[in-house]
Amino acid sequence: MSIEALTLLFFGSLLFFLVLGLPLAFVLGGVSVVFLYFTWGFDSFYLVASQIWSTMGSFTLVAIPLFVFMAMILERTGVARDLYRMMHLWFGGVRGGLAIGTLVICAIFAAMVGISGAAVVAMGTIALPAMLERGYDKKMVLGVINTGGGWGVLIPPSILMILYALITGVSVGKMFAAGILPGIMLMILTSAYVLIRCYLQPHLAPDLPKEERGTWSEKFAALRSVVLPIMVVFMVLGSIIGGITTPTEAAAMGVLGALISAAVYRALNIELIKDASVRTFKLTGMIMWILFAAHAFSAAYQSMGAQPMIEGMIQSIPGGPWAVIIFMMLIVFLLGMVLDPVGIMLITLPVFTPIVSSMGFDPIWFGILFVINMEIGYMTPPFGFNLFYLKGVVPPGITMGDIYRSVIPFVLIQIVGIGCLMVFPEIATYLPDLLF
Fold it and tell me: Which domain of life is it from (predicted)?
């Protein structure tokens, strides 16, 4: 069978079983193992085992359960509630101020937890009812929470960045540094959109009445709520940038900061530790199974000899290297609508990164483009994770259709952000070059 027909059959089988609703890890691993057996025989399974064994010996992987555990602890404390109270007092007098305050809280949460769902659930529980009660447009509110929640995979620490570094061999510290300015840029772009639209359409997000804005003494007293989040961020990012810890060791510092925060809020108890531990085991187990399956996929893909064919096809795209980058981003964007972001990374990066490096592009810069696209994948229908996290906490009157429609303008803003990074790559590369 020709390599073209084999490739079509391989990817067609993957798509077929995914459409049936089977779990990604078992589809990816199962189909790959079957193709390995029929192309190279039983001995090919040793290749999969050797790849998995080398990955499991990676010290970088230790950071994943630690960052997940940190997120599970912080999600149960009162940090998000107090942050929202502070933003309510300081931004409530501005038209659309609660929405902008929610975006700022999501960015702060992203700098603490490293995953996408924590901020979505927290703000969906706390900020969503408060904004709807005050007359905010539901699509505006849903879009803001969905977008801000996705920044958890871009603003460091980020589990997806750790996986990107693991797959491509780049520095985790450089990836973390590269995500800071793009994360701030996306927060500014999204906030500017909210401000402008609310100025042009005041009914979407009215400013709060004076009696709800608080006194200056209340505002300054509320600033105490940012002390613990800043402490956690400093313990994680400060220890990395200061050269005190590796990114993996910094994850343990983050767990310590989360436990201190829980103790300050008097939420630290056996039940909290038990619940956070069980959820961490479940999420980490899912990531590991996908990682195992991806190694089987990589072994099958390489054994078929399809990679040179795919590389040749991509490099023959008219328009030169930039057209290739845009084509890759389009593929990732479309895959993000139907596949798990971790699976997308493990399927596409072994193909994309050699081509990106051969064309002279910085793999750190490309990694930030890729992660932003993964962030978009979390918020785009039909299978974006954030959509379902949000559906789980919204009031009964809000439908899945409302959530789907709310993301459209915010997805376009993220795409504008990708365009800005392409035109000005220094936004992503300045801090890594400066610090490392």
Answer: Bacteria
Query: What pLDDT shows up at residue 111?
Result: 79
Give the C-alpha separation, 57 to 79, whole Å.
35
The four Cα atoms 267, 271, 277, 281 give a dihedral, to 10 degrees, of: -140
SS3 43: helix
SS3 content of the chain, % helix, strand, coil (to 5): 80, 0, 20
* C-alpha to C-alpha distance for 160 and 50, rounded to whole angstroms: 23
Please compute the mean of the pLDDT values over residues 300-308 and round it to a whole number.
Answer: 71
Burial tier of 332 (Cβ tally within 10 Å: 0-12, 13-18, 19+): buried
Structural tokens at position 276: 């956070």
Residue-level pLDDT at 416? 95
Nearest 10 degrees: CA dihedral of 204, 80, 107, 175?
A: -150
- Among the listed residues 231, 199, 242, 249, the one whose alpha carbon sits nearest the alpha carbon of residue 97: 199
The C-alpha atoms of residue 64 and residue 399 are separated, in whole angstroms, by 33
| Residue 174 CB coordination number (10 Å) | 22
Taking only the tens place, the pLDDT of each residue in 218-256 is 778 877 878 888 888 888 878 877 778 877 788 888 889
Report pTM: 0.79
End-to-end Cα spacing for the chain = 49
Per-residue HEC secondary structure of 127-162 comes to HHHHHHHCCCCHHHHHHHHHHHHHHHHCCCCCHHHH
Cα within 13 Å of Cα(7), Cβ side: 12
Instruction: Specify the pLDDT at position 90.
Output: 81
Instruction: Give SS3 for 246.
Output: coil
So what's the pLDDT on residue 29?
82
pLDDT in tens, 386-403: 887 788 778 888 888 888
Query: CB neighbours of 372 closer than 8 A, spacing ≥ 6?
Result: 154, 182, 186, 414, 417, 418, 421
Please check whether residue 369 is in contact with residue 422, taking contact to mean a CB–CB distance below 8 angstroms. Answer: yes
Supply the DSSP symbol for 318: T
Q: Which domain holds residue 420?
A: 3-435
Domain count, the chain: 1
The residue among 330, 20, 371 whose CA lies nearest residue 165 is 371
Query: What 8-state DSSP symbol labels residue 200?
Result: H
Given a contact cutoff of 8 angstroms between Cβ atoms, the answer to whether 204 and 140 are in contact is yes
**Residue whose C-alpha is closest to residue 352's, from 333, 379, 332:** 332
Please count the CA atoms within 13 angstroms of the CA of 134 that sit on its side-chain side: 24
Given a contact cutoff of 8 angstroms between Cβ atoms, the answer to whether 258 and 68 are in contact is: no
CA-closest candidate to residue 213, choices 90, 103, 131: 90
**Confidence band (pLDDT; 50, 70, 90) for 307?**
low
